[in-house]
Design brief:
497 residues, alpha+beta, Trefoil (Acidic Fibroblast Growth Factor, subunit A), 2 domains, 6-stranded antiparallel β-barrel, 5-stranded antiparallel β-sheet, 10 helices, 30 strands, 34% strand
């Protein structure tokens, strides 16, 4: 119930809305961090990552189960990724992708203390003994101080979660039920409070800002080889389950974390609750509510009390100047199987990803101003893939049909349909005018089955530029004749049917 309340509000903040159409297949894999910790990872020198930040990003969770309480393990995702590459057999294909992946995860030769140069994809981290070490880089979508400056000028990030349903639906006789309220005085141990449903009619936490911060692996990581190598081939004595099983080397990782700033607790309680716990709460120095920690300041009581004839209201404010991390989202790699309800057939309006034969996906667009206004150029990359849709028809998409390729990326707005133009690279444009440059004929590499399906290798021929196929052009897209470059279509699993 606590997780549901947090997910409800976090999906309403601006960053969640922007990512809603990109890739939120891991959204149900939320884990609560109890108690919350301060997000105080400030970079003190260029090229050096705080040890706490690195460990939080790189260490694999103890459990990958949704709704499990989050605990970090001591196992390194980047180390295990390196092992995964090493146990792929010598006949793995494409061999060039494996060779490139191995070269990018190879540690720089120069000792980190002897150089100011930091190779792309790497960072420096002080270990527990204070020795500077090379470590694969993890990139955060924001850092604490910059994040605070941004969200505090935008009230869209504020909000309240209602936890009263957690009280009303709790079973106090269940030994596995975790208390939602805990308190302690001075150096005493935590004491639990299990209020009865009739003793409380409000339990809310307001915060000036709620948000989700993404964690991206750096250029040392190649997401495409995870998909290509899930089923091997592996060297002897290694199997898929050793890598991607429930206890495998790459079972899951932390992909995002949820932060709040300046939370405030408000709870309305009955006289019977005050009789049972009032004196203890007046003397408490720390109060924990659903993982949120509220601490007593030097001169003032922790809880402010307001009374009327019907109830007593307790109010507590966080005195931390830092944002708090209250939970994480987990990206799981545990299976390559589709759910039972999953239909492989692609229909108009279905969301999918496009991956080229080199393992690169169509990712976020780049905005450019040209003679005819703004243009949005889709790019190729290994992270941040963008969901696409076929438009221009209804029902199943079949071999030889004319389609339009529409991006679901909110950033591009109405300029969201891919076209081939006089520019070297393809870009998205609106469909307010019917341009033939935005029409593509789709062909299957294996035309025995006319239906376009998940996993198919497909080609796109532009209708305006005759016999020119959609192909890669460095980090961008273009069209060329007589180039045998197919695209692999990957249907998005978690979408409305």
């Amino acid at each position: 119930m606590i997780e549901e309340a947090i997910l409800k509000i976090i999906n309403q903040v601006p960053t969640s809305k922007k990512r809603g159409l990109i890739e939120l297949s891991t959204a149900p894999n939320f884990q609560l961090l109890e108690p919350a910790i301060e997000w105080n990872w400030e970079v003190t020198a260029i090229g050096i990552t705080p040890r706490e930040q690195y460990q939080f990003s790189d260490h694999i969770p103890q459990s990958c189960e949704p709704s499990a309480q989050f605990f970090s393990s001591s196992n390194s995702f980047s180390d295990n990724y390196r092992t995964f590459l090493d146990v792929l057999a010598h006949d793995f294909q494409p061999s060039t992708i494996l060779s490139d992946a191995k070269s990018k995860i190879q540690e720089p030769a120069t000792p980190p203390a002897d150089t100011s140069n930091v190779p792309d994809g790497w960072t420096k981290v002080y270990d527990g003994a204070g020795i500077l070490r090379w470590r694969p880089d993890w990139i955060l979508s924001a850092h604490p101080e910059d994040w605070k400056s941004r969200v505090l000028t935008n009230t869209q990030f504020s909000g309240t979660i209602n936890l009263i349903d957690t009280i009303l639906n709790s079973n106090n006789n269940d030994l596995n039920n975790q208390p939602i309220l805990k308190y302690k005085s001075n150096n005493s141990n935590w004491q639990s409070i299990f209020p009865q449903p009739e003793q409380m009619n409000k339990l809310e936490i307001y915060a000036e800002a709620w948000d989700r911060i993404q964690i991206y692996p750096g250029r040392w990581y190649n997401s495409s080889i995870i998909g290509l190598g899930k089923n091997g081939p592996f060297i002897s004595n290694y199997h898929n389950s050793d890598i991607f099983g429930d206890t495998g080397l790459l079972k899951c990782r932390v992909s995002e974390f949820v932060v709040v700033y300046q939370p405030q607790l408000m709870m309305n309680v009955s006289n019977s609750f005050v009789e049972m716990y009032g004196q203890e709460l007046l003397n408490t120095t720390e109060l924990q509510v659903a993982g949120f920690i509220f601490k007593k300041s030097t001169n003032n009581p922790l809880l402010k009390t307001e009374q009327n004839d019907n109830y007593t209201r307790y109010i507590a404010n966080s005195n931390s100047s830092y944002p708090l991390i209250i939970g994480v989202f987990i990206e799981c790699f545990g299976t390559n199987d589709k759910p039972n309800h999953f239909s492989k057939i692609i229909q108009f309006g279905d969301q999918f990803y496009l991956r080229n034969k080199n393992g690169q996906y169509i990712v976020g667009a780049e905005k450019s101003l040209g003679l005819n206004g703004q243009q949005y150029y889709p790019r190729l990359g290994n992270t941040g893939k963008i969901a696409l849709e076929f438009t221009g028809g209804i029902g199943n998409v079949e071999n030889g049909m004319i389609v339009q390729i529409k991006s679901t990326e909110e950033f591009v707005g109405k300029y969201n349909v891919l076209g081939a133009w006089t520019t070297p690279s393809c870009y998205y444009y609106s469909t307010e005018t019917n341009y033939q440059q935005q029409n593509w004929q789709i062909f299957k590499n294996n035309p025995n089955d006319k239906l376009i399906q998940d996993g198919d290798q497909v080609y796109f021929k532009n209708i305006y530029y005759k016999d020119q196929n959609l192909v890669s052009n460095g980090l961008y897209l273009t069209t060329k004749k007589d180039v045998d470059e197919f695209w692999i279509i990957e249907k998005v699993e978690d979408q409305d049917s």
